[in-house]
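Internal QA ticket QA-208
Title: Verify multi-chain structure generation after dependency bump
Assignee: T.L.

Test input:
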Amino acid sequence: MSTSECCDGAEAPDCAGSVTGVVTLDEVAAVKLATALKVLADPVRLRLLELLATSPGGEVCACDLVEPLGRSQPTISHHLKVLREAELINSERRGTWIWYSVNRDAVRQAVAALQTVTGLHPALA
Amino acid sequence: MSTSECCDGAEAPDCAGSVTGVVTLDEVAAVKLATALKVLADPVRLRLLELLATSPGGEVCACDLVEPLGRSQPTISHHLKVLREAELINSERRGTWIWYSVNRDAVRQAVAALQTVTGLHPALA
DNA sequence: TGTCAATATTGAAGCGCATCGATATTTCGT
DNA sequence: ACGAAATATCGATGCGCTTCAATATTGACA
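Actual output:
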């Protein structure tokens, strides 16, 4: 017997109910992970993260992020805000400038969740 | 001297050019990774991947994917197509039904790329 | 306090995406 | 060949997101 009613017609011999595993992602959790991934799924934001990650001190002044990405200052400011509100980066004001750095734990969490969902990781945590 | 011209005004004492690391993500590579992540950044597609990953046999008949997600059949078909074209899942027709499974290598690649960009992984590969 | 540089916000334009109903296509069994 | 079930495609709708120019806000310093 199938877990659903899709293949129980008179003609088809049933597809044997292939879905029986334990599902951990309810609608809410799926939306939450998708939201985090959506923040990461932008070329400008990915390059911002890389600029932060590859910087010798691990942090970069916002004023040094506009030119290398070839976008306007408001656009960079917008993306930094999106990353900050998703807690994927940290920001700290020091005098005139604001310094940004990657929030490694938050990125790790998103990556781990994605691995769990896709079965790459046996959901150890 | 700064790597850009943003903080070279008369008043500000320069922000010391914090961007000096080696950047591997050019615009094209960033768009490519962002495209893959965009495919993953959808609640329905994440739950589809989990249904495939947690299925005992590792594969699920498409007919068993419509009901548990509460979306219409065209919508599920659309998402399966998106996942398939991104090569994140494999599909195989067996008789009346089509069986889907997670393409673990593709997911692994995307995850590894994300880890590299964010500095979680020392880019070993 | 007033000025200048850095950063944030606003408002609008343009594009892409998720979703559905309706319909077409494919495949099997009779 | 025909009918039924599974899957795919089409067309439309509504929402969200990226981007920019213009403007506001914030903070340092004289």
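Spot checks passed. DSSP finds five helices and three strands in chain A.
Status: verified.
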